[in-house]
Sequence to fold (272 residues):
Amino acid sequence: MSTEQGPGEEVPQPAGAAGGASAGGRTSAAGSALEKSLRILEAVAAPGGPHRLTDVTTAAAVPKSSTFRILAALAEQGFVRAEGEGRYGVGPRLRGLSALVGAAEPAGVDEVLHELRRETGQTVHLALLTGETITYVRKLEADQPFRTASRVGMRMPLHTTAIGKSVLALLPAEEVRALTAAAGLPRRTPKTLTTALELEAELAAVRARGFAVDDEENEPTIRCAGAAVPGPDGRPVGGVSVTTVTFLVSRAEVEAYAPALRAAARALSPLL
Fold:
């Protein structure tokens, strides 16, 4: 998470495909026409659009000729829109679909998030696992003298965020390796974990305590605690977090939010 005064808030999109299959994420530059189309839609809908054809090709890991052909078909159906100068943005049908999905949010999610904010007094985020990143789908701002720059729709790394690390901690080791190989472990602050050994040790600690902490690993002055939300099969579908600033809340205080955080994750599990 990031404050308005912090450095860049966007996570670079993955350039290329993973070295092996990873459930819930990109598998390879190959795949069915449907898989390619979905990856292209995801790339077009990423923040910062409209996107250049080259950027969509790289993010979706689909050959340029195929990307151009699929984009033309999607534009004809209204799911994407050619914006000129070789750029593509979200089309009206995709915006309409997004509105329908938002309106279909399971009952009870808001209540759980509001209760967590009430108990902690901090900003609350709900994010879902989307390939090699997490994407914020809900945000409740704290009643504090500061505001965070995170927003719904923002995609963030797995290895630098509390939600991301809590999700990784519940995945099989081989899947963690595939995800991190595809996205890399780029450094965002001096405290970012940038080696596989560091991350493995951190994930073991996350599993032991049942929640993760981002202690200025994603951005200076920002401290978060996050817990994974498992789906019906036990696989994490995303996670929930509380976000604070280091100059107001100590790490010990953030860790004290763990019982409320884990309770929220348990309550969200059947809803998501």
The radius of gyration is 18 Å.
